[in-house]
Predict the 3D structure of the following.
Amino acid sequence: MIRLKNIVIAFVLILWPLDLYLKNTPQNYIAYIGPTLILLISYLLFKKNKIYFWVPFLLIPFVSPKLAVLPLSISLFSLFFKRNRFSALFITASLILGFIFIKPFWGQTIFKFDYEARQQVIRNTYLYPNVFLARLSQNKTKIISDKLNSNFFAITDPSNYFFGFHPREGYIENQNLGKYLFLSLPFLFLCLYYLKNNKNKGFVIPALIGSVLVLSVLTNFDRQDFVLFVPLSLVIIDGINIFEKKYSKISKYYWVIFVIFSLQQIARLFAVKL
Amino acid sequence: MNKKILLINLFILSLSLILAIITRFYKLGTAPAGLYLDEAGQGYSAYSILKTGKDEFGKSFPIVFRSFTDFKTPVYIYLVVPLIPIFGLNAFTVRFPSFFFSILTIPILYLLINKLTKHRYLASLSCLLLAISPWHILFGRTNFESNAALFFYLTGLYFFYLGLEKPKWLIASAVSFAIAIPTYHSQRIITPITLVLLFIRYRNILISKNYLKTVILGLLIGIIISLPTLSIINTPGFLARAKGLNIFTSRTKDASSFINNPFLIKTKQFASLYITYLTPRNMFLLGDYGPRSSFPDLSTFFIWQFPFYIYGLYFLVKIKKMKELKFIVFSMFLISPIPAAVTGDPYSTIRSLPLVIPQIIIIGLGIIELSNLFKKHYQKFAILFIGLIIISLSLAKLYSSIIILNEYYRGYYWDYGWEQVVKTINKLDKNLPIIVDNARFEPYIQIAFFTKYDPESFQRENYEVRPSEYYTNMDRVRDKSIGSIQTRQINWEKDLLINQYLIGDSLAISENQIEIHKLFLVLDIYYPDTTTAYRIVKTNPEYQRSLSP
């Protein structure tokens, strides 16, 4: 008999890819899931304790040049967890690939010259009573730091993953995908709280932090953030397991509620599409 | 107690109070420039009470103020009444209670944390963080009732904890909580839930022999203070705000189908709204979406506080000691967003103001625990030095946002310009009528406020409802008379034929209309960003008559 918990896990895994598929053309969809599939392969190798589990990461720049520095970012964070004779090779290879793909990557980042933002800063400087205060409050670094903060906080915002950015949706630059059911939120926190004991932390933490940093420097991370699907889903699934162990009595009721809400959310996805 | 620790704490607490006074008192009344209609409404209601004992609609000492049929809470308005003879009827006066109670909140917070933890550093650091908190400063500089409500709520909490040692303080606690409830709408939810939680946690003490009598007495006093509020609890006026904004009372399309099931949708909507109050993106980056409840280029907390918030939160969850602080912080942390989250607005900082307290404490805890990782003297000195630089930069940021950018960009939202309009009106020909366009504004209240129009005459000339229907009849009369001034929509066909003044914004009276109708431009009043706010013109009936065949 299928356990209710497994149905819950299935719903956790299905929503984001489904919504992404329904809101994009098949060609675009394939482009977006490419890096995610690579992460999945890498995770499967990691699970089998293969020390070369990082090799698939090197394919990411070829699939999605926007994410050209993702392997480098992940490789640097991997150093904190598992250092072996391949680590230096991984970093070197990522670095070389980063250099090769630097041009297409740079054009998609927040470091690109922004004429409008520069003009706004110049206009604002005239409002201040002295040059010191004007330079302190309005300067060129502010343009980049504002964009970086905006991306970073959006990527790390639970509303992004559980509520499609509601109630502060971005209508122009964002598809506001319903990525996970909001009832998955406790699982995320539960797993993060017990992250120290997580068996997958050697993969999940570098993949999460590395991806968040790279996505933060992109002009528009929407849909590119699908690379987070694998590490985030692993975290949530782990949270489900912890929840079942710690709160076995209420978990059954919670699964039922979860399934009802999930069914409605999926039905609404199709209703919008139709 | 170590004398050195005491001195350091005294220094931090004094610094907090000085910074709090500077950041809130500097240009109080002139920044934000302009006077928003709710501020003017509260001010004029207070003026009317002072002069006649009735509000502008002729109701004696209302329990909630009808105003724009939004039924404003009464405590703040009654607090303004005694200030008018001292400071006059102006923006400073109507904003003063906010300032006053935001300053008083700081020592109360110190006493409360100290009572709960005996951790003087945490108490004084939390006060310092509150003193420079953009969220708390905003509502300490402007006429919003939420700061006064927060003060009474915190005082109630502090007295409650004193009461656990000496029962007589429970009566003072009951009085404070009872005042907090009618001071601001959100306290109608926050205070009762807090009281229930406090009772559950300390029930063994509260129902013990020594306490029971005092508890019952406190409860009775609380009920007596709340009686006026309770007497109108079922009226449309009292429920106006709760019903108008509540997401659970709004209707869903095709509610019978599974995909539009209102319960499932509203639950999700509530959860999404609730979460916004606790997430870093709203706290450190976006802030409040409202132009009057935020400052440009500044969120509710400074971005440098983000890592301390995360660490403080983690620490507070993990820590086994400081149980009382943990209880109060998490209770306030989880309760405070509820009244705000049942409204559809994303991250409404005015409705969730009590949340600033637990979040500030969490940040303070994060700072202390992280700095405790550095043990050596020179490291401590470096931390202090960095801390001073950060505070200086934060103050510069506050100045930039509150005084420079807010003044320049937000004049429109603060109804800038009506004071200048009234000054000009006073110089106009007294024999000619004046029409003020009210298509997009409610200018009557600002005009009554700035002209200090006799409230008795206002009540006589602007009948809206009978006093017996004050809380029940929701009908409004939008057009008002203030002596020779009428506020109504301009009727271009008729009004041009009468020799009179017309006042409106640049949409109501465009440059094109001035030219076509050969109107005489008396004055253009500009927002600080140099766009036209209001326009005062005199009609040209001779020209109009010359056009007719």
Q: What stands out?
A: Residues 4-273 of chain A form one domain. Residues 11 and 257 of chain A are 12 Å apart (CA to CA).
